[in-house]
Design brief:
Layout (H helix, E strand, L loop, with lengths): L1 H21 L4 E7 L8 E4 L5 E7 L2 E7 L6 E6 L3 E7 L5 E7 L4 E6 L6 E7 L7 E4 L5 E6 L6 E8 L2 E9 L8 E4 L5 E7 L4 E6 L6 E4 L6 E10 L5 E8 L6 E7 L6 E8 L6 E5 L5 E7 L4 E6 L6 E6 L6 E7 L4 E8 L2 E8 L7
Antiparallel strand pairs: 1-28, 2-3, 3-4, 4-5, 6-7, 7-8, 8-9, 10-11, 11-12, 12-13, 14-15, 15-16, 16-17, 18-19, 19-20, 20-21, 22-23, 23-24, 24-25, 26-27, 27-28
Length: 357
């Protein structure tokens, strides 16, 4: 009888191992070679299986259309570009925002009318990665930082064929990025680093006027880089880095007010806190995040689809995964754009990939 139970146990372990090994791995494609520099990438969902990827090649801003089993098609958007961000609307129209490093302007491009048009959103902006989102009426919203004396965090929306800007908060110091998202009621939410207060903060206009509050963590908060997403119930989810004060360890953290008060969880331990990360939330409200592991020099993915945070390697090649940007595709998969080996890459894999191991 004892041997019988041992045999059953061995078979169960073998079945679990086979099931895990049968899980599809990432499909990785080189979008374009010779993409130099040290800058952000951006990715957005297109129609059906299409995805759009933005990157800087040389000094030009290019947007690539990627389809399964097809060579990526590039389009030149700007002669000079920096820190590109992308979004699409329900009709599949594409919107882009980016900085002009010479003119210090925040610029905008879209093909909403059927042909591409570009314009300036604001002048004299700080060297901070902006964030772009499109509401249900097809209006683009951008959050960014002005290069004024107070380093003002601003929100701008395109209405009546003009950009209308408003201040959110003065930061005192500008760096890293801002992250903007729109909830199901059309209200705006943004995460950002207030350099004057040295706090990662969260602001929303859900009650009318903009109100901000620090994301108070059990650890010393640090956050020039964060990523914010809203779930289908209108709750906020934020991924960010902190430095633990006693051990000086750098941690990838996750915060959410999905249950009412803010709660916090450690996702992973990392060796450096100045790398880009990207967060997305699926329809059931589960969080997914991609980030660069500085120590291992690898692109990683973590998700709480099983109830606990589990992480996995997406690209095992040394040095691959810089400036990753992620979206959740309509087919239930994850798409990531990133840089490595002087090339632009696109990876696709199932949600929760490797998270059970």
């Amino acid at each position: 009888m004892h041997n019988k139970f041992m045999l059953i146990g061995a078979l169960l372990l073998l079945a679990a191992a086979l099931s895990a090994s049968d899980q599809p791995g990432p499909i990785i494609e080189r979008v374009d070679a010779g993409v130099p520099g040290y800058d952000a990438t951006a990715i957005a969902q297109g129609r059906l299986d299409e995805v759009y990827v933005a990157a800087i090649k040389g000094r030009e801003l290019l947007i690539y259309t990627c389809r399964p089993n097809h060579v990526a098609e590039p389009r030149r958007i700007a002669r000079l570009g920096l820190h590109p961000v992308l979004a699409t609307d329900v009709a599949g129209n594409l919107y882009a925002a980016y900085l002009d490093p010479e003119q210090k302007t925040l610029n905008y491009a879209t093909n909403q009318s059927g042909s591409w048009m570009t314009m300036t959103i604001d002048a004299n902006v700080a060297d901070v990665t902006p964030s772009l989102a499109v509401d249900s009426l097809g209006r683009p919203h951008v959050a960014y930082v002005a290069d004024d004396a107070k380093k003002t965090l601003r929100h701008s929306v395109y209405v009546n064929e003009m950009w209308k800007a408003e201040p959110i908060e003065t930061l005192g110091w500008a760096g890293g990025n801002v992250s903007l998202a729109i909830d199901i009621r059309g209200k705006l939410h943004v995460s950002y680093f207030n350099g004057g207060e040295k706090l990662l903060k969260y602001a929303t206009n859900s009650e009318g006027a903009w109100k901000s509050a620090a994301v108070i963590s059990p650890l010393a908060t640090y956050g020039p880089v964060s990523s914010l997403a809203m779930d289908s119930r209108g709750r906020a989810h934020i991924a960010y880095f902190v430095t633990e004060p006693t051990s000086n360890h750098n941690l990838l953290m996750y915060a959410s007010n999905a249950g009412g008060p803010w709660t916090f969880a450690q996702v992973d331990k990392v060796s450096q806190v100045n790398r880009f990360l990207s967060l997305a939330v699926d329809l059931p409200g589960r969080a997914h995040v991609t980030y660069f592991d500085e120590a291992a020099q690898q692109l990683r993915y973590a998700a709480n689809t099983s109830g606990e945070w589990k992480d996995a390697v997406v690209d095992k090649i040394h040095g691959m995964g810089l400036w990753a940007s992620m979206i959740l595709g309509a087919a239930g998969d994850v798409h990531v754009s990133y840089l490595g080996e002087s090339s632009l890459w696109h990876a696709r894999f199932p949600q929760g990939y490797n998270s059970a191991r």
